[in-house]
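thought: user wants a sequence for this fold. calling inverse folding tool.
action: design(structure=
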């Protein structure tokens, strides 16, 4: 057999960026890991954005290309993983119990961090040194966000439930609507679970498609440094380093809150589950770098699921908890809403009663659900929250627009961390995690 006719093994075909470990591509050269590539792209993008900002419009396409490829592949992959997870559960009672516990955990965590953030902000009096008076220009600037917020607020629970159902099975994928894909996958998984031997060909097809799109995602993730470079050049050129000094107290306080949430709250959850928080964070360091620079966790959704399965969390837990968490477990967004409401009230000199604060917090808990993927999601949800108590001028949102990208860095990282830890907690609760395997993968043995 000639060399060209020889079969290509997986080891031979593997791209260097498909693993967090450095791959040897020749006897004298070690290809940098994906983490190193992302860090290098971040630094290079920062320098180009600072010293050659005119280049920004020419490299923006790299980020768009990366995110479009992710959206293209993540829908089918997500559908296959969720459906197969339900089929693998064996019993719909098990699926129902797992989903119920996941939602209970999500609501408990988001409610806790929301009220804690409000308490800390009130205690520190953030925003009291600002005297903001809205202008007509400010109102025009936030008009788009207010319009989206009005739709989000008026649709209510019924509108949210109706939005879960796609017009057609295909439209859920063409629109890239994660919630609709999740709903369709759960429905198909439950039906296939009850069909017995008749479902065998469909299940085999789903398994093959899952393997196909998993491999596709591995190739796409190789372009992460390119996407990160474009994102850093564009954002640095647009805002500049001086912008971070504006509203510095608000930004700094939010970063501190997110750090406390990740280290204190999520770290404690991991310790209770028997895992080392530092090693756990190191395990997801490549994904963290991508989230920090692109300010979105969408790009790493498949990687999170793949790594959690490798960690020992059962597939049915990963397949249900992670996708649902992207819409229901937005812990960092809840922290932002609690901080922003009180900050804007203080900045505009608006006195809020405990009843008004409670009304806005309850509104925030509802409006934030399913808001993942809405353009300017944080500002939109915040505007919908403020609409519950019109005392605070909606135009005051213009203050936060200037620093929304910087806030988005911590917000994306906080949501990402929460959705990495949630499957571990639910898996431990359900006894569907192999702790010995997890400790071995994390190097705790």
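)
observation: tool returned 445 residues.
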């Amino acid at each position: 057999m000639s060399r060209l006719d020889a079969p290509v093994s997986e080891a031979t075909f593997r791209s260097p960026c498909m693993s967090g470990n450095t791959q040897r591509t020749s006897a004298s050269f070690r290809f940098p890991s994906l983490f190193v590539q992302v860090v290098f792209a971040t630094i290079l993008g920062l320098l180009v954005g600072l010293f050659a900002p005119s280049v920004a419009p020419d490299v923006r396409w790299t980020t768009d290309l990366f995110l479009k490829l992710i959206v293209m592949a993540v829908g089918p992959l997500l559908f296959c993983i969720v459906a197969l997870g339900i089929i693998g559960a064996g019993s719909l009672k098990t699926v129902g119990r797992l989903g119920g516990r996941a939602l209970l955990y999500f609501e408990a965590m988001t409610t806790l961090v929301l009220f804690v953030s409000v308490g800390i902000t009130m205690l520190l009096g953030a925003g009291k040194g600002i005297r903001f008076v809205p202008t007509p220009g400010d109102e025009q600037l936030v008009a788009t966000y207010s319009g989206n917020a009005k739709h989000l607020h008026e649709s209510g629970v019924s509108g949210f439930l109706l939005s879960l159902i796609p017009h057609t099975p295909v439209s859920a994928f063409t629109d890239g609507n994660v919630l609709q894909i999740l709903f369709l996958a759960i429905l198909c998984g439950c039906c296939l679970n009850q069909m017995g031997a008749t479902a065998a060909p469909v299940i085999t097809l789903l398994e093959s498609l899952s393997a196909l799109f998993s491999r596709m995602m591995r190739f796409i993730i190789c372009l992460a440094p390119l996407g990160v470079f474009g994102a850093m050049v564009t954002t640095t050129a647009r805002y500049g380093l001086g912008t971070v000094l504006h509203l510095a107290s608000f930004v700094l306080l939010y970063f501190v809150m997110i750090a406390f949430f990740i280290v204190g709250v999520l770290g404690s959850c991991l310790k209770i589950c028997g895992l080392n928080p530092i090693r756990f964070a190191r395990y997801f360091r490549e994904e963290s770098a991508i989230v920090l620079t692109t300010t979105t966790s969408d790009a790493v959704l498949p990687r999170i699921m793949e790594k959690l399965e490798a960690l020992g969390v059962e597939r049915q837990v990963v397949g249900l908890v992670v996708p649902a968490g992207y819409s229901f477990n937005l812990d960092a967004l809840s922290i932002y809403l609690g901080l922003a409401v009180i900050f804007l009230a203080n900045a505009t000199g608006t006195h809020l009663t405990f009843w008004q604060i409670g009304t806005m917090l309850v509104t925030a808990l509802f409006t934030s659900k399913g808001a993942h993927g809405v353009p300017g999601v944080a500002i939109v949800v915040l505007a919908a929250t403020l609409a519950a108590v019109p005392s605070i001028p909606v135009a005051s949102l213009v203050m936060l627009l200037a620093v929304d990208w910087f806030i988005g860095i911590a917000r994306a990282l906080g949501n990402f961390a929460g959705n990495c830890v949630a499957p571990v907690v639910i898996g431990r609760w359900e006894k569907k995690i192999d702790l010995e395997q997890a400790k071995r993968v994390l190097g705790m043995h």
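thought: summarizing for user.
answer: Here is the designed sequence. The longest strand covers residues 23-24.
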